[in-house]
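Notes, p. 3: input format for complexes.
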Amino acid sequence: MSDVMIAVQHVFKSVTDSTGSLTILRDIDFTLNKGETAAIVGASGSGKSTLLSIVAGLDTPSQGTVHIDGVDLFALSEDQRAALRSQKVGFVFQSFQLLGNLTALENVMLPLELAGQRDARATATQMLQRVGLGERLSSYPKVLSGGEQQRVALARAFVVRPAVLLADEPTGSLDFATGAKIMELMFELNREQGTTLVLVTHDRAIAQRCERRITIEAGQVAAERVEA
Ligand SMILES: Nc1ncnc2c1ncn2[C@@H]1O[C@H](COP(=O)(O)OP(=O)(O)OP(=O)(O)O)[C@@H](O)[C@H]1O
Ligand SMILES: [Mg+2]
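Output follows (228 residues plus magnesium ion):
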């Protein structure tokens, strides 16, 4: 068994719209081992969210491959890819993407139910308590603050204890203290479960806590620093 959890090889992404063709990612290459923590950093518009969506199999590259735990993501059918994601990958969107017609609790129960887990209600309740939302279980997303929605999105991603957790600015809408608590939770999951953690962040302190920093500049990996 290989120790590599995520392998991104020669990934390019171009999009075409009415104004022409735009290359968002050019030849991105990196691998992350099981249990490793990495921060993806770079200026706004450099391609971080696009890269994270491709690693999650939510978006497709124009060229190149992504392997998750040895499986070639884009050699799979869409259904197979969705199945692999539900088994192994937790994703926190920059824009949360909660389901508006479900309560906070129902949003967090959903991935457990999709995975056929018993005790979805109790497990989801516990996870919402851990992110400090034990009192808001039956609230709908539209009445929650931005930071509260972000914490529901985090609880939803954590709750299945995925092998890989991908989070796009997971503390972007949180105050300092709440953000720090959420980061503790993520690193705890990393330690307890050996979760491979990939965070997009503008927060230097968070980036410093990760074992690896991958800097994206205009769609390319600019520098990679490995520290002991
Ligand atoms: N579907 C699309 N069509 C056209 N352009 C796109 C599309 N998706 C992304 N882009 C462009 O690609 C670039 C990279 O976008 P991306 O969202 O990956 O940046 P980012 O690094 O996450 O930025 P931020 O830090 O602001 O979140 C941006 O210039 C964006 O406008
Ligand atoms: Mg982004």
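The pocket of adenosine-5'-triphosphate (ligand 1) is lined by residues 15, 17, 22, 24, 42, 44-50, 94 (CB under 6 Å).
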